[in-house]
Every structure is written in structure tokens, then in C-alpha cells.
Fold this sequence. Notes:
By secondary structure, the chain is an alpha+beta fold. The protein has one domain. The protein is 34% helix and 16% strand. The protein is built from 7 helices and 8 strands. It has helices at residues 4-14, 19-32, 41-46, 103-113, 132-137, 168-173, 184-195, and strands at residues 52-53, 61-63, 77-78, 82-89, 92-97, 148-152, 160-163, 179-180. A 6-stranded antiparallel sheet has the order 1-7-2-4-5-6. Strands 3-8 form a two-stranded antiparallel sheet. A hairpin with a 2-residue loop joins strand 4 (82-89) and strand 5. Helix 1 runs antiparallel to helix 2. The two termini are 30 Å apart. The relative contact order is 0.21.
Amino acid sequence: MPNYFVDMMNNAVAQGLESSKIQDSRNWFSTQMTNVRRVEPRTVIQKSKDNLTNRTFIGMMYLFMYDAATKDKLPYFDRFPLIFPFRKIQGGFYGINMHYLPYLLRARLMDALYDTLNNDKMDETTRLRINYNILNGAARFRFFKPCIKHYLNTQVKSRFLFVEPKQWETALFLPLERFEGATKQQVWKDSRKKIGV
């Protein structure tokens, strides 16, 4: 198994993130991926049939396959977004795609987003209470800006994998991002510039 995940998690602990959350994610990842050199998002979706759905709900987490309609005009896009939808619109929705942030900044944004939970059960009733005004109005959410993406229903190429709230942190740290048009390092560099870190 590659060491980059362990190194990233150790770095996150060194930066002061809650160690129990990091350890849970590390343990789950190690158990599930012992013989896997690279996590394939398509496989994750296909092997999670019980959690596949055709609908999304505001404030819940989903993974899905996407093909951007304007990919020829975009510098890059993520083929397997990991999102929290926050606004439905005609023909699609807006979501926070966590993949646009490097792992440590994902964790920081997620820590801030936990303050908006509607309950602390971490079950199918749990969701984030978010909208653009809430996100834009609080400094603790500042990492969200490069993550806001518009998705067209016609360009969604799989069913949505519903990520149960108790697995949000696990999904957050899995290397499922698949950017077309740029490397993830370039995407993350651009995201850091947008938020000034």
C-alpha cells in the first residue's frame, strides 16, 4: 500500500486535527485497501449497490461519475465528484466538491461544516444545513470557494452513491479524485491561490 495516505494523515494530526477521527479513517482505509494500489471510484460506486440512488438531497454526501458538458472550455474538471449538494436548480444542482481541496484543507472545511449539522445522530436523518449565503457569510467556511460547482443532470453518468454520515470522514480522505485537464497537484495549487493559503 502506498505511504502517501499515511503520510498525509500523520501530517493532519501534526496540524492539530482531532486524532480520533484521523485514526478511524486510517484504520478503515487500511482494512479495506490492504491489497489495493489505487482506489478506483468506479469500483467503489459499483460495489456499493445498497447505497445507490437516483436522487440527491441537500446537505448529504454523494459520489458519482460526471462528464462536463463544457469540458472543451474548462481548464479541468473532476470525473468523480464527492459533493454536498446545497442548491437545486432547473436541470441540475450546485454542490461543494470536496475533491478540489488538498486533504488537510478538506478536513478543515469539514470541521467547519459540522457546525451546521441538523442533528448529531450521524445516521440517514443527518444532513448539513447549508446554502450559499451561510457559506459565504462565515469566515470559518472560507475554504469552500474553489469547491462550488454546477452540475447538469444530463451529464451525470452513474447513479449517486449515498455516503452515510458516519462514513463522511472516510470518504473525505480516500483518493477518489480524477481530474481531467490537470493533475490534482495543479488543481490544489489553484484552489490554494483562490482562498489565499
